[in-house]
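Write out the 3D structure for:
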Amino acid sequence: MSKAIQTKLIEALAVVFSLAYTWMYLKGELPEGYIFAGLGAGLFAFLCWKRKIYAESALQFFYIGMAVYGYNLVSEGGTPADQISLYTHAIWLSIATLGTVLLGLFLKHSTDAEMPYLDALTTIFSLVATWLMINLVHENWIYWIVIDTVSIYLYAKRGLKLGSVLFALYLLLALDGYFEAIQIF
């Protein structure tokens, strides 16, 4: 089997596992869904590293850790968090913006990253969104809507077409998650 076919197979599995997790999250099928989250993240970590999307690769390792954390939290009876204030969101957004600039500068000057600032943006903001998601804060979906939109472009530009399609599906799922009454899926 050629390397190109192996890469496409790994990418397809990563997409399937990642979609399974998000679908299960939306349907409340946790903690089992976190197993798929960890598997999909592991495969994407490998793929992103190969395509020189370094911060995104590191983010996938964070996702693996969050999958373990989420599994344990929900297994122990975790419940949705109270809605967080606009002030708290402003703090998260300020920290994430500063982190994006700093990580983007690092990637630009210390690596051969092709799109350092977009890589940094999706990575840093995903840290915040994941934390909100794992702690069952409903507004996590707003963050994901923005992240998924940028990620569609980032993955497409780096030749990960199935990954780009995954983020398009994630975008639809995020819209569904935020506007629960619409029930797209």
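The radius of gyration is 16 Å.
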